[in-house]
Amino acid sequence: LYVTVTETLLGFVVGSILALALGTVIALSRRVEYYLYPFVVMFQAMPKVALAPLIIVWFGLGLTSKVAQAAFTAFFPLMVNTIAGLRSADEDRVALMRSLDASEMQIFTMLRVPGAMPFIMAGFEIAMVLSLIGAIVAEFVGGQRGLGMLIMSMTFNMDVAGQFSVLLLLSVLGLILNAIIVAIRRRV
Length: 188
Prior knowledge:
Blueprint: H1 2-28, H2 30-45, H3 48-59, H4 63-86, H5 91-99, H6 104-142, H7 147-156, H8 160-187
Helix pairs in contact: 1-2, 1-4, 1-6, 3-4, 3-6, 4-6, 6-7, 6-8, 7-8
């Protein structure tokens, strides 16, 4: 449980930082969007489960590959929500702030970010659960420890009851992680 939670949380943090950064850049720059967004869509269309063996080959069997898989799985929903949220600012309000001589940074921090928070928090909820799925998939493919590896071991031993117990544990873990994000969302 500790190994899977560690991989999930690290993957969530890495994926979230990258998604927020890239989503912000794409949302604020049409030129960056023009050149970069087709590649983002291309990578988003790839099945993340099918990429797990390649990630294991690239990063090895250790913690890094599990974190990379969890981050990659969590990245896209949060990035898309960040872009949608930052672009949801009412253009009349943006024009009003510009007429009051507000800088682009002030418009960003006082208008765009607060307006984008519901989108971003929804993206965080999705990303947290998907990072757990990404970590489990990585453990299926090349795990030496963790709940995913435990499920695979039980599969080979035909321990159906054990598999269901781990699946139940994963469901409860997903609920707990989601509840943490919901509590943070309410606080924010």
